[in-house]
Please model this.
Amino acid sequence: MAKFFGRTAKESRVHDPLELFSDPMFPSPGGAHPPPEELFAGRYAVDGALPWGGLVSYYRASSEGTPLILCVMPMDVSQSTRAEAAFSHLAHGLGSIRSRAVPRVLDAGVIDGVPYLAFQDTRGTLLSDILRDRPLSSVSVLRLSTQVLHAHDAGHAQALVHGDLTPQNIIVTRERGGKLGARVIGIGVAPLLRANPEASAHAAHTGSGKHAVAYMAPELFGGGAFDASVDLYSAGALLHHMVIGSPPVGWETDEGFDDVPGLPGVIRRAMARRSANRYPDAASMRAALEWIEVESAKQSPHAQDIAPWMETSHIGSIPVAALASSLPPAHVSSSHPAGKILSTSGARPIPIKPIAIEEIDPEANRRWRQIALLLTLLGTLIFSGYWWKAQTALIETTPPLDLDPNAQHGE
Model:
């Protein structure tokens, strides 16, 4: 029997059980649902709930010893083919995203009317927990925000709008070299729930976390459509929150932006009330942030997280599209292979063909090149052996000339 998957155990997701639903725009969290251990019995071993997001439920789980993250939608699509088709579109789009800033989809399906996604295992700290203690340095702000915008760019390319970008949906990780990285979760969930109220009791939610309203573009309060510009508005609010320590509610001053003096202008454009006055796309906003990073680095190169080749370059001579690379512009490449959903099995899988994702392994590529070189050398040796054997046989079959040493010319 299909049931709504409501979030009754919200105390496992927020510190204050009333915090998430204190806003009058939030409905009560009612709705019965089977425990995740029962829902995924025989398929995944659920290890426990995660305090991520706000509109959906996240769990750590494993399958045959492989750790992963389960994302369970608060929906019942058993009586709505439209809602199930919308979820299929979301799962297909997420499975096609290949970006380090977006956890990769491994599985998707519907069990007893409940849609779910399985992501690659992700470890880190919620950005909301970090911002609760202190603002971030300018280096961390620029690095995290550019990765968030990269996730937006990848999602928008698949016609997926996040619609709920808040610090509750950003996982901060530690990457190689000790640098911070961002993983964006919850892409496309808010538009999915709002567009299918018949399948979700949570369609009227304003977003994830107690600051969700401050991150929402003005047009959404009037029932406006989710498009790419609403994500750019939220990215502008995120920038302000990371630098100042709070969302830009009634923001009228540029105080606190001494390290990155150009940032307020980027925030104001991203948060323009009219969507037409915002950046045209996420790539444009990311390029503006990277330009600010280079300009601030020119003032204090040793205090900024930039590539060495930028320190000796002249501002104005670097192609904007090349600023995201750690290499000079001549070596920049922005191509990313597309990914696919691995499998969609379950009690009632969504109509997505299982396609294996091909990983690009530099070590494997090097081994293939070595094998190709060895085969070429082996072919050359075999050919040389056949050639030498043919020449030797030709000499042996040539009859010797019978010459008389005593013969004279003309005889």
In short: The first helix runs from residue 36 to 39. Strands lie at 45-50, 57-63, 66-72, 105-111, 114-120, 125-126, 170-174, 180-184. The longest strand covers residues 57-63.
